[in-house]
Amino acid sequence: MSKRSSPFIPSVLAVAIMFALTGTAQAQDADSQTAQRDSASEQSENPTALQTVIVTGTRVGNRTKNSSLTPIDVIPASVLTQTGAFNLGKALEQAVPSMNFPMFGASDTFAFQRPFELRGLAPDEVLVLIDGKRMHVGALIPTLGQVGQGAQSVDINTIPISAIDHIEVLRQGASAQYGSDAIAGVVNIILKKGADGGRISAGAGQYTAGDGRRWHLSSSFGVPLSGGKGWLRVATKLSNQSKGNRAGLDSRPGFTELGQKFYFGVTPFRDKNILVNTQYSLADNVDFYAFGHWGEREGEPRAFYRYGTNAPKPKSPLMQYIFPDGNGFLPHEHGVSHDWFMTLGLKGHTDGGFRWDLSANSGANRVSYDTWNSINFAYWYDFGYSPRDMHDGLLTSSQSSFDANFSQTLGDNWTLSFGAQYLRQAYQVEAGEKASWYVGNSGYSGGAQGFSGWGPEDAIDVSRYDVSEYVQLEGNITDKLSTSISARHEDYSDFGTAMAYALSARYDFTYKFALRGSASTGFRAPGLGQQHYSQTSSTSFPAGNALGLPEGIYLRGLVPVDNELAQLLGAEPLKAEKSRSYTVGMVWSPTTSFTTTLDLYYILVKNRIAMSSTISLTKPSVRAYLAANGVANPSFVGLNYFTNAGDVRVQGLGWVSNYHTMFSNGGMWRSTLSASYHENKVIDINPNPAVLDKLGDTGFQRLSRDAILGLLADTMPRTKVIWTNTYKQGHWGFTGTATLYGRFTDYSATDWHLDTVYHHKWLFDVAVNYYLDNWTFAVGSDNVFDTYPDRNPPGQDTHGVFPYPTSSPFGYFGASVYGRVSYHW
């Protein structure tokens, strides 16, 4: 790992360079701009006329980004591919300031299926659609105290970027239009259509530290179907990510000499994905359509190193018998994820303005998980041996739905839309082999070291269904005033009914300036995993932990709310989250070249679902209470369950400005400056379960301090700014992006003195493209000035092993370089 100087000087230098380039461009364009200002007037063309028509948040057929009643970002495919990001999540994070997609290391399933958040809210409060159809959530449920803890989120990295035409990110609660999970907003992935065109691309890169090598191959092409009545498009992606390690040396005397033993960095992955999209005309005004995806990801997250007898303080007395050479071991987790979905549908319209769309959708994510190069000490003690590689179990999350959507134009100004949906969701956990989860009664640590498997008591097969109906009326009251009103009714088989409403309005003072606002209610049904999932995990407890345990690695249990142990300790049936959301904003387009939107928002989420703080099972009062109720020997030291923790308030703003111009020398310059600010706060915590208060001075709370201030509030920075400039002339293209990540805080569970504030950082990305006929050659660097987050302070870096915060919004891997070549037709 290279040493770095203060980031201040290179940051100021890069900003100065970008301003200089901007100044040069403006000077070049001065004469032509004067002429344009002289001729531009009220007779100029409406600046929204040539924009992409949006389909998210509206069912009117002629809305554009700038004429939308609600805030929406439209991200074209060209923006997704203009940096070194080779997966969709990272590309979106570099383009949308209200989205965070942190990169975790040494974090078990967090590293395998990465969650993201929108407007500071949880991943499962964001609805992801593909061409307007609900996408299924992943099977893994991360539980290790970082962004997305406890949320089953959609794995958007399975979608090949090559399949995407553009993405619409609706920054507005949309439960009334789309149902559960749309509290924070909607990400709608719009696929490429038609038989024309294709592209093949190959790229490779690595971190400048010399590791983290990656490569990818992707393609997208279309072919016509018989008689020109339809088309078929195929998109593929094949990629490989090698490991990159940023772990430090253990600073304790006697341990440093053992060298780098831990792994803290990029998880190695291999990805294969294919997406097929087709449409065929069956009759006049009637089309059949289908799209489907299949993907496989194989990855190997790393666990904590287990020291052997050659260390001053071995972790287990059994080590000298099992590993007589004195060396320890680094457990590897190995997962294989298969992801697929299929949508089949019929759609049509009549000359009278009636449109209809009928579809059936099905998809699933299936993850097989193993622990390699490990051992189960309890199993070894009781049976005299233990396998080193163990199968942990199999998890499956699936979803099927039937959708019927209809709309009718009413005169020239109004559109009435209505429809219904039947949704079935299921979740299964199959137990792993015995050695992966066995605990026994010997007192030695049970379960596979690194990642304990799912046992028979964790195995579940649960499902539910939901029937919903919606209606939406949208149109123009006058030439200047537009409005939309929506309502949706849901009936879930496991938690009951819910209603959601939305009202939006926009007033265009001129075609250059408009005000818009909306008010909505929302809801989110508790996830099946949150209701039924259980897991035993190896968790590192630092010195001074809330359980009062010596520093070390212990087994911690997550159990469902209907588990006997959970109910003894105050668990209650989960209720749906409910929300109220308000936005007010403006759209300003003074010329055809410049547009600015600014939107303020307020969201209140009631009965937010979260993991409880860890309840100690080692304290005498708890032991006695559990024994009196028939639980004599819990298999872990601490317990968590999901709970309706309290109410969370989010206040913030989103700002986007776009400018583009053509120069007299044939050059084109485009600049986008966007920013997001949000402030999350837990404003009310539901009362502590009475049984926990009766157990005496145990310090138990429904939520710990770090959850109240961090996980349910501001884990990620409140502020994020993205400034991108692109200049193209002739065969050359240049792109520079500056991204500001505001400061963030890691909160201690017990003591404010242990809170750590990490300063804001600027990251700069540069890319150069050369266009030759149908070929494009690109080279670039992300984080070109090799910026890292602040280091963890001594005492909070696990003896120097983990030098950087895992909650860093941009990771801790430094600069990367890449090259890419593409051919299109």
C-alpha geometry: globular
Q: How many angstroms does the end-to-end distance come to?
A: 42 Å
Percentage beta strand: over 45%
- The radius of gyration computed from the alpha-carbon positions, rounded to a whole number of angstroms, is 27 Å
Oligomer: single chain
Helix content: 10-25%
The main pleated sheet reads as: 22 strands, antiparallel, barrel
Tell me the total number of β-strands: 37
Query: Helix/strand-derived class?
Result: mainly beta
How is this structure best described in words?
By secondary structure, this protein is mostly beta strands. The chain is built from 14 helices and 37 strands. It has a 22-stranded antiparallel barrel. Strand 4 and strand 5 form a beta hairpin. The longest helix has 21 residues, at 8-28. The radius of gyration is 27 Å and the shape is globular. It starts with 7 loop residues before the first helix and ends with a strand.
Keyword list:
825 residues; mainly beta; 37 strands; globular; disordered N terminus
Quick recap:
The protein has 825 residues and is mainly beta. Helices cover 12% and strands 45% of the residues. The protein is built from 14 helices and 37 strands.
Topology readout:
Blueprint: H1 8-28, H2 30-39, E1 72-76, H3 77-80, H4 88-93, E2 99-100, H5 109-112, E3 117-118, E4 126-130, E5 133-134, E6 164-170, H6 175-178, E7 185-191, E8 198-207, E9 214-225, E10 230-241, E11 244-245, E12 265-266, E13 269-283, E14 286-299, H7 319-322, E15 332-349, E16 354-372, H8 377-383, E17 390-410, E18 414-431, H9 434-437, E19 460-476, E20 481-492, E21 496-510, E22 513-524, H10 528-532, E23 535-541, E24 552-558, H11 564-568, E25 577-588, E26 594-611, E27 615-616, H12 620-628, E28 638-640, E29 642-662, E30 668-685, H13 690-694, H14 705-714, E31 719-729, E32 732-741, E33 744-746, E34 756-758, E35 761-772, E36 775-782, E37 816-824
Parallel strand pairs: 4-7, 24-28
Antiparallel strand pairs: 1-6, 2-3, 4-5, 6-7, 8-9, 8-37, 9-10, 10-13, 11-12, 13-14, 14-15, 15-16, 16-17, 17-18, 18-19, 19-20, 20-21, 21-22, 22-25, 23-24, 25-26, 26-29, 27-28, 29-30, 30-31, 31-32, 32-35, 33-34, 35-36, 36-37
